[in-house]
Amino acid sequence: MRALGCDLPGLSRKKIEKRPYPPGQHGQARKKVSEYKLRLMEKQKLRANYGVTERQLGNLMAEAMRSQGAPGPRLVEFLERRLDNVVFRAGFARTIPAARQLVNHGFVLVNGRRVDRASYRTRAGELISLKPGAQENVHIKAALADQSLERPSWLEPRADAVLLRALPDADSILFPIELQRVVEFHSGS
């Protein structure tokens, strides 16, 4: 987070306010930043926050380029619709890696059926809930008690579940990002 210069709430609950400069011996020294590095850093923010690999991000970007509309907002929509991110945004886990672990271990139900793929792309109208008895888990209790991040408008809380009311938009991202630079990085220009 310090190397990228911003807080990534999906990656960690920690903040960079104590040391808001890059890590390392020369972190505080001013450096001239190239245009390529600016594009790379924007792409790395997405990769680090959402926990996707380079190949996954490339495939999502290619799909966003093929789809109708601007590719930047479509990429954010695809990333926000991932099941691990929806579990995090619903407040069932404190970070996206913790949410991914809940999904992989079979604690998450989509429309009453167990889904154990973190990359599952949710759709509008789906009900995401936890397995019965999972709310007794210490980590899930702590996440549900922590209300520091508010639920986005596209998630509607229900009793022990959330309904994906609509598809997320580019404004629902939790950290500052310049999507045009991510698109430029992947287009090679």
Brief sketch in words of this structure:
The chain is an alpha+beta fold and 189 residues long.
Please describe the structure with a list of short key phrases separated by commas or semicolons.
189 residues, alpha+beta, Ribosomal Protein S4 Delta 41, Chain A, domain 1, Structural Genomics Hypothetical 15.5 Kd Protein In mrcA-pckA Intergenic Region, Chain A, 5 strands
Task: Describe what this molecule looks like in 3D.
The chain has 189 residues and is of the alpha+beta class. The chain has two domains: 1-71 and 175-189, Orthogonal Bundle (Ribosomal Protein S4 Delta 41, Chain A, domain 1), CATH 1.10.1050; 82-167, Structural Genomics Hypothetical 15.5 Kd Protein In mrcA-pckA Intergenic Region, Chain A (Roll). The chain is 39% helix and 9% strand. It has a five-stranded antiparallel beta sheet. Helix 1 (35-50) packs across helix 7 (179-187) and helix 2 packs across helix 3 (71-80).
- What is the string of SSEs from the N terminus onward? HHHHHEEEHEEH
Residue windows where pLDDT falls under 50 for at least 5 positions: none
Q: How widely separated are the two ends?
A: 26 Å
Secondary structure: number of strands: 5
Counting DSSP H or I runs of 4 or more residues, the number of helices is 7
Write down the Rg: 17 Å
Mean pLDDT value: 87
By CATH reckoning, the class of the largest domain would read Mainly Alpha
Task: Tell me the name of the CATH homologous superfamily of the largest domain.
Answer: Ribosomal protein S4/S9, N-terminal domain
> Major β-sheet, in short?
5 strands, antiparallel
Q: Note the overall shape.
A: globular
- What is the CATH topology descriptor of the largest domain? Ribosomal Protein S4 Delta 41, Chain A, domain 1
User: What is the share of helical residues?
Assistant: 25-40%
Given helix and strand content, the structural type is alpha+beta
Q: Biggest sheet, strands in spatial order?
A: 2-1-3-5-4
Q: Based on the structure, what is the oligomeric state of the protein chains?
A: single chain
Beta-strand content estimate: 5-15%
Q: What's the CATH architecture of the largest domain?
A: Orthogonal Bundle
The count of domains is 2
